[in-house]
## 1
Amino acid sequence: MDVSMMHNLTGFGFTAGVLPANCPSRTVLDHVTSKWGVLVLIALSQQSLRWGELRRTIEGISEKMLASTLRTLEADGLVLREAQPTIPPRVDYSLTPLGRELADRLLPLMGWIADNADEIVAGPQRAQ
Amino acid sequence: MDVSMMHNLTGFGFTAGVLPANCPSRTVLDHVTSKWGVLVLIALSQQSLRWGELRRTIEGISEKMLASTLRTLEADGLVLREAQPTIPPRVDYSLTPLGRELADRLLPLMGWIADNADEIVAGPQRAQ
DNA sequence: CAGTATCCCCCCGGATACTG
DNA sequence: CAGTATCCGGGGGGATACTG
């Protein structure tokens, strides 16, 4: 599996119309690019985290959305949930091997965004 | 040491909390991961396209959302809009250099999603 | 052809309260 | 601590009609 083919769309089978509607890829894309999906995956890419740590790490996320996002990503097999049957409960979240593969593609993207965000939001003219 | 540092978040400057809320990176992330942002950028990564071509290429997008998405991406300096003053009008959309840099990070992601979507939506158990 | 304008609904997602 | 339950408002986003 060569990396060079990663940039050849033809090799991925969505030559004609980017992606057909109602196909699995669209579903996964929606999950990943959901409002908090990327940030959860990025957060877990560094280390496994507990619920409360995730909540504090991803600034601004609500409990509802954290739970919802984690459930979706877990159902997709991207995030692993490990609950200790202790009192008080302790639950650790981490990436599955599949999730790690995905995160490896997300990190360069996020890195680029972090690097260029200031220029982008400022606008081409004003940045100049 | 080439790609490996891409996996070190510290190198990108969002060590502490993934990304601060209300920061430029969040804004750009929201634009890119908007419902149609990724698909528009991917579509334009192969070739510049006219309005109607984009509409047909990105299956399922409405005129309203195509216009909205294009305006956002153009304002961000990621997409270039070139209108010919002819009748009937002809407008070409393409990626700016900045947009191309971004697309180069999006393509591996989309490729991976296309490759693994079937397994993901099927679920780990059933896929097994 | 390349878009606006308009109507309108769904549901995403936030806030708050509560529980094992 | 790690969530669920419930309420609720705004706006994301679809469908249709219209225009230069």
Note: Chain A touches chain B through 63 residues (CB under 8 Å).
## 2
Amino acid sequence: MSKILILDGNSLANRAFYALPMLTTKEGKPTNVLHGFMTMLLRLLAEQKPDYWIVAFDKTKATVRIEQFAAYKGNRKETPDALRPQFDYLKEVLAAFAVPIIECAGYEADDLIATVTTKAEERDWNVQIYTGDRDALQLISPKTTVYLTRKGISEVDEYNEEALYAKYQLRPAQIIDLKGLMGDASDNIPGIPGVGEKTALKLLGEYETVENVLAHSDEIKGKKLQENIRTYADQARLSKKLATMLHEVPLEMDLEKFSYRRPDEAEFATVLDKYTLKNVARIWHQNHAENLDDSKEASTENADNQDNPETASSENTNTNTLLDGWPAKELNSEEWIQQLDNWRAAKQPVTLSYKITPGNPHWSRVLEWGIAVQKNTYSLLWAEADPAVKRSFASFLEDSEVSKTVGDGKALYSVLQNEEMTLRGVSLDLSLAAYLINPTRTKFDAVELVREYVPGYPDFSSLTEEVSALAQVADRYKETLEELGLTALLHQVEEPLSFVLARMERTGIGVDAEQLKSFGEGLTTELQRLEQEIYLLAGESFNLNSPHQLGHVLFETLGLPPVKKTKTGYSTDAETLEELKMSHPIVENVLDYRQLSKLMSTYVNGLLAQIKEGKIHTTFQQTVTATGRLSSTEPNLQNIPIRLEQGRLLRKVFQAPHKDWVLLSADYSQIELRILAHYSKDEVLSESFALGQDVHTRTASEVFGVPMEEVTKDMRRKAKAVNFGLVYGLTEFGLSRDVGIPRKEAKYYIEKYFDRYSGVKRYLAEVVIQAKEEGEVRTLLNRLRRIPELRHPNRNQRQFGERIAMNTPIQGTAADIMKLAMLGVVQALEPFQADVLLQVHDELVVQVAPEELDQVAKIVKEEMENAFPLSVPLTVECKTGRNWYEMEPFFTDK
DNA sequence: TTTTTCACG
DNA sequence: ACGTACGTGAAAAAT
């Protein structure tokens, strides 16, 4: 059976353009699309060895569809200047490479692709379509597979009928129904208002087609939804039609012209040179180096290309990225015990996976273990396992001599604590590895971890398949970590910290439920009073919690002047309301109501729901933030009120979980500005810290040109705002808004600041330049964050990238230092009656037996201050009290 | 699910 | 002319 590859030229070129950095020839011609497209093309050639191939392009004339619907693609953006000429360059390169292209005035690439697919299927060929456009999924059939690009173009997801069904529960023909219902903003296909992907899939799951959904609109639940479906029925039918690819483009095409031909070397070399596509040339030559010297290729190939005609591609040096199937062995109880003993004796490295009861791992139980050892896998059903096997397995897990690769060590350790077991010897935590490699990724489940290195959707039908896949990608993670210089950070900081965090979570923090309830009762009374007052002043009652309804009352009924708009209507946030305070007495009441209702819903009710046996156990997320900070969820204990007194009172309910122990809080003073001083080596800023001055007062003194004794409160307030802004990537707008001063004045302060702190100015400029060159920034511990925004065609995005470049090394280094400090503190406190309970970015909360407070405070302070020496001193302030509200300064003597 | 708002460092 | 300070998580409404 012959194989044809169909590439969507426009879609892939667009993807390549936005995915890759701006590359140019020495004359300045943009070439990033050429690089991206040709690299992909050569890879497909080597891996797929097509018999036929074709690249389809749109022709820029009016298309047939515009006649159907005037707005179609109406809001599509103008092609960027750097992209437009590359289409012609690309066609030139393709011609030199003997790759056939098709285009047809009045039709889109989509329609050409559909037409070629139909003809190829008639000949019983195998069809592979490569595009970034999900519309193409409608072409899937037993003979046709669609490959969608994923983040950039270097990786694709394979969709056949099964994969499509697994992901969307749709048949290929239903893709157009999906578009008909949900529309497509990028093509200005309207669909039905209020129907997004979720709703559309639900409807199609029940009614199969657009027509059938419309016919049964009276059965559909949801008043608004039903109404919209009726109102926009015609629009849905039209949208479906627009999404349908045309299979009958009136174009003579002889499929034989699409056959693969080896290019003329000289012609190809000339054009590669013309556009300085060195990398493409290198790949070409590498793939076509004589196969004499590649002796390392010995993979268990299961591809079905026996009847491949002679193609130009020889065996390439790529390693096979497909997963090997490792056998799953069955063991009885005796064999398990024996096997576990053997592995321990041989110190055999293993990969572990597990299935647990659903929900928060804090309370979950283990259902099954999956273990991979030396290309074999084993499954252990935990509930029905023999007690002797369980004991043996527990010893195996806690044997630190046995190296373990795991998907998520913290969650595993958490669950194990429910089983009275522990975990030692974790030598690779794949989630943490993946996080360090890309701290902005969001998914860390096994499928996603494997997918990083295995194209397509790995589909694990058993735990043993999952664990074998994890084991097989582990080495790839190690290589990448090495390449990026992240190995030490992983093994010396993140992995050990994960166990510290798991223990903190398990210890929990004490919360007095009764006190919290009575606090809530007080709030309820006050909230009811405010609510009545507001309705009286408004002359009507409404849902005060609805920004929409509140906006209506304030700006329509009462006629207050609108200040700011959101994309859906009037803005009613605190900043807006502050400005309106003078206009109407209702505004102040609304502000008070907002503040109290926040306390009531998020804190009183939210926390009450989380109390278990007098304690709250948060989850610290270690793979969430882009900068390396931790985050805290279910509940978030890193945003307990403190700034306003009414909220701060809430802290009274937090106490040491251990009876009669007290809380100790230790927080870094100005850690981010100290890091800025360290990085910038600025003389004034460094001196300020070396002398132990109040840094905001010193800044005010410099900016306003007065001695420190003459700095007023207002000057200090403004200088403090400048210092805050610096860390975020100072802007005039931000400073003026925060301090409530005109832009002009903000600009003046910034200029003055940079006059006096020229080292800071130089550093911030340099960090941006370097970030632009390298596309990434690093922290002091080498933590990495890539900043693709710096190369984004949109200027706002680029400026956002610049602020990230200024902020991340600072915020991230602060996070690094705190993590090191936590490891030091926990280790140093081992002999004491004390536990670390919480981390709030620059603060640690510890519980301690009162008689050991002196010693413990001293240790915590010293460990934190000396966690990582900077060119300026780090200082830590300790406070102590019976709860998190009544904290009094605590001085340790040296 | 998305939007708005607001709590923290 | 536009849309801006950096990093988070949760609740409620509207869809």
Note: Chain A has a mean pLDDT of 88.
